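Researcher: I'm comparing several assemblies side by side, and this is the next one on my list. It has 951 residues spread over two chains. Same procedure as the others: predict the full complex and return the structure.
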Amino acid sequence: MSNAQKMDVDGLMKNEDFSPQLLKIYYEKFFPFLQMFRWLSYRNDPKSSSPGTQKDFFQRREFTFVLQGDIFCRYQCFKDMEEYRAKVLERQPIRMEIGAVFSHAPSKHHVLPKDVYKPLERELVFDIDMDDYDDIRTCCTGSKLCLKCWTFMKVAIQVLKRTLEEDFGFQHILFVYSGRRGVHCWVCDSEARKLSNEQRSAVAEYLTMVSSGANKCRADLKMNGCEELHPSVDEAYKICKKWFEDPNGILANQDILKNGNHLTNILEPFSADEKDKIKKFMQENSDATSLQIWKKLQDLVRLREVNEATFKQRMENKVLLKDVAIQYTYPRLDVNVSKQMNHLLKSPFVVHPKTGRVCVPIDPENVNDFDPAKVPTIGQLVEEMHDANAQHTSLKPYLHYFETKFLQELEKTATEELRQRSGVSPGVLMDF
Amino acid sequence: MKRVRPESEQVASFDPASARKVHQSDDLGVTFYKYPPNAEVSVRQFEDYTASRLKLLHAIDRACNSQELRLEQMKDSIRPKLGNEFRESGLELVYPETKARMETFRLEKVEFQSRDSISHFALRLAFCKSRDAREWFLRQEQRLFVLRFEALNAEAREAFLGSEGIECNRFVETEGEKMTLKMLQRCTPGAKIWVEKSGTKVPEFDQTFYVMPFRAVPEKLISGRRVVLQRGKAYVPASLLKLVITKRFKENLAEALEVAFHGQHAALMDPRVGGFLRVLQDYGLQLVAGPRSSSEEPREKLSLQNFEELLPRSFPPCMRRLVEKQRETTKHLKHAGRLQLRPFLKACGFTFEESCQWWKKELCRDPLITSETYEKSYHYDNEHAYGKKGHHQGQNCFGCPKIIGSPGEAPGQVHGCVFKQLEPSALQNQLQRWQVPLPAMMEIQRLIKEGKHYQLACIEYFKSQHPLSDGEGVGNSPVDFFRSSVRFHKEKEKEKGTTSPTKEVAAVASEMPQAIAAA
């Protein structure tokens, strides 16, 4: 997809990208029930007889089916993979959501007192939506999406991954295309699943550095009286800076300094003298790019550093312009999604009804290879299925990634944990 | 109950050096109170220990509240102020310095632990009943815990954390690892402490950091990025260690209060201490323990005849505002407002018939409400409040804590505590309309701004409306305000020698249970 080509995510799609008939085939032939089951049961096989296995673990997981006409069916639960598959094929939900693992099977929730039926485990989840970037997006508006604004998601994925892994020590992280204009993140380590609501809130706040808003051009980076920025801010900045200043990065793509009020707002804390210098530069170089103007701003800050006298000035300069880069690139999370254990989030591998696209995993190590316009639609998949010449369908690479890079790693850890819980040596546990 | 066994081991020869060493890492009886005391004391001692502790907790509350302190700041600003209170309470154990004390330290400690434990568990029973009581108790016990924990030496502190199962290892710089002490010092807000040195304040950095799983750390340190995290571990400066342990303390105690709540019945039925505990349950939270007007005391009752006179004179601001607003706007009070006002009027003396008449008249000022609407929709509430319908227990007037805790007013609603609900400018307007003199207004604004002392503000208001009064008895409940006001005016009349034939003389019965002596 060239830079100019835009994808209308909400527009009318050709008939062959989505239809109930196509969905039916998709569920029958493509949806990875076994892999999803393996993920969500974390080696708690209902058929296993090893000690330490919680046989009803999968059954206590809440699912939601959304049927045609936006009918929500909550409190769905399944005994095992077979029932999971059978029920989905029977009801044909146009969307599914995944909730927490509760103390009892969700189907029994209405007969239990409120403080008895409660969530016990739930993946730590994050939701990043392009809507929250509307005040800094200039390439597209509304439901349109292109590779330029998709860049916001790429940097969000990299920043989120770094923080979750290096600061919090989480290892089993899954990024999923939300089907339209965003990304979901599922953190599946058992420590993450056991976090309380307060702890989830705290992690979400730790990860929050910016808030959206018209005329907001800098992040409020508090130094809290310290001599240096907090390492997570610094590390995030390193990633943000790269994506901000890259010739194909956000500053250039969105032409930030030449659109709207952004430059005026950014210049606000600078002195009259400094503002004049910029004004002069722009008068003399009327076709200067955003990047070139940015470099000039950085020169100004460097000049300041030579003259800074007080502790306060030094601290201000440490943050100046870094806060701008962060404001325009740092991930904007919808923290409400993360704070509660019983929040329901769309399941990976479901299909977006407006676009027909499958919510596939995104490999965070290769963010540049992911192109939302190339995500397979179910129309496409069914076509490929009928093509005798095709070796495999477009879904295969995504399933392969899910299997090898996420699921197998997860199962290794889950097996080890199961072993520790039951005090049994690994050879005894049954494999799938 | 078993008897306390005194230390039976003999100290054969006394070696000061080793004795000092042993005691210096002593935990000074700092505890999570996991196990109930196993000692025998007299009823008198039980009451004394418990009353002392309650007095100490109130003293801590007052000392802290006037400064809205964070736990980190407690040691330096609060501890020095409470020297007397700690000594008097007998609830403090310090490291022995003299030979004499070292010899008796163990015995002293056992006795201290007994007093500490008994009084703590007794107060659990006293404060487990309502959410307000639990929150207050948790907060003060947490503060007391912090003060004691801070008095321990470093080894004792680390040992205590370890004994509570909190993985707590000292950070040691390792070759090849990116994390250095210097980096931690420069990035952690709590690590920089401003120390007074030869007249100026200089920053000093904490030299010790502890490594622990991030889940052990209070959430606000994570959410504010106030500790460095790496691979799931948090690096906590020694000065903030108390926050980690205090969080655990609070969690434990909150659970224990739940247990106490379910088990309180047996204790309350005990003939020796049940009455005492019940008194504590009812009065333990009192901000001020002034003479409480009992319900037996003859007093002036609120009636339809004296209503207009008493409204501006004796009504507490929260209730006065409700009546006046309803009249001014000719819009009937919404549910929360009625729920607040109704039992107050009842407690002040309205009979059922008077209440019905009054409410009918007032509500019908609103053009939307007719006599029929009243009968249909509002009459039942009165019957309910007077115990004639519903659960037949009637409605009691809310106390100040509950009114203060009311949710914010939505448009069209009027309820809650005046000093909390109104913005400073709106409050000023209201106080001016009530002709509160300027010095009182400023004091009220100050109390609210500097510590959210709504109840103290109300006492100020009372004092401004009742010159030369000391506001005794005011501040815990609107009914007390009303009664104190009525009493004040009665006494004024007595002094003047004019007594209206319809008014009764109120006798002040000072009921001060001996057990509660909060200053």
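Model: For your comparison table: Chain A has two domains: 3-129+173-206+337-422, 231-327.
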